[in-house]
Structures are given as structure tokens and as C-alpha cells.
Amino acid sequence: MNVVELNPTVSDALRRTLAQLPEFDPPASRWLDVIAEARVVRGAPALIAVEADLARVDGALQAAYDRGAAPAELEALWQQRTATLEALLAGYRHPDSLIRI
């Protein structure tokens, strides 16, 4: 099910038109490129690195769950994810204040 199917405000004519278009599902790796370009245009290139860090931590967290990691490892990854997400949110609120070392 796609967004158009879930949105009750989309007219039937638009639904029929959109249904005729081919579906495009880019690989997940391309989304970081798209986000990176948008950030550079908006003047906040430091956000790109933090978004990439968050994606890396999310991948590590999922891998840890998949292999049945110990609670201590999961807790450390969750703490890292929380800190990274807090930095990202702060960067969205105040892009000039984001400093990455």
C-alpha cells in the first residue's frame, strides 16, 4: 500500500493517473545522497555527517538485535543512538551550532 492509497483527500481522477505511472523504489543508499544534497543547498552540511552517524548506529542496533546481542551491548547502542539523535535535532533547530569533531 502506498501513500496515495492511504490519503483520503486524493481524488479518484488523481488516483487513476498516478496508478498508471511506474513505481520507483530507489535503493536506501541513494536516500542519504538526496538528503545530503538538500542539506548542502540549505547551508547545513554538518547535518549530513550526523544523519550518516544515525544511520550507522541504527544499522548496528538492528544487527545487534538480529544476532541476539547481550543487554549491555544493546544499552550502549541505544545510548549512542539517543545522543546522536539529540545532536541531530539540535542541528535542525540551530544549524549553525552543530560542530562535529
Number of strands: 0
Task: Compute the CA-based radius of gyration.
Answer: 19 Å
The tally of structural domains comes to 1
Instruction: Give the fraction of residues assigned to helices.
Output: over 70%
Q: So how many helices?
A: 5
Give unreliable regions as ranges. Answer: none
Mean pLDDT: 76
The proportion of residues in beta strands is under 5%
Sheet/helix structural class: mainly alpha
Q: What is the string of helix and strand elements? A: HHHHH
- N-to-C CA distance: 42 Å
Query: What is the overall silhouette?
Result: extended
The major sheet is characterized as: none
Short description, anyone?
With 101 residues, the chain is an all-alpha fold. 70% of the residues lie in helices and 0% in strands.
